[in-house]
Amino acid sequence: MTIRQMCDTFGVTARTLRFYETKELLSPKREGQKRLYTSRERARLKLILRGKRFGLDLEKIRQMLNLYHISDAGQTQLAHSLDIAKERFVELTEQRDELKLTLEELAELIKWGETKILSGATDKITAA
Q: Which CATH code is given to the segment(s) 1-56?
């Protein structure tokens, strides 16, 4: 695939693809000025985008991708990826729980504020 085809297929910009190249996450073949992306590069980009969606930093993603070259049929990469996925799951679950508490507190604050405003309006009406 050309860089334009990759951009269209994955919904990324050419700048993003070049940035991933500088971070050694992708290494397309070159034909003169053209970048050509193989099925390997397409698979790597899928994994990069998934890792980003899960909130992983690019260095962690790069390390996971580089484990693919170990000759154990991908077992090391899979085991490492599972460990990272479990850690991220715990982190996201904790963030969700904290966010739930924050939302509950905020809802209480809004309810309290609305009650104060309404009671203040009622006090002004009865005073008049």
A: 1.10.1660.10
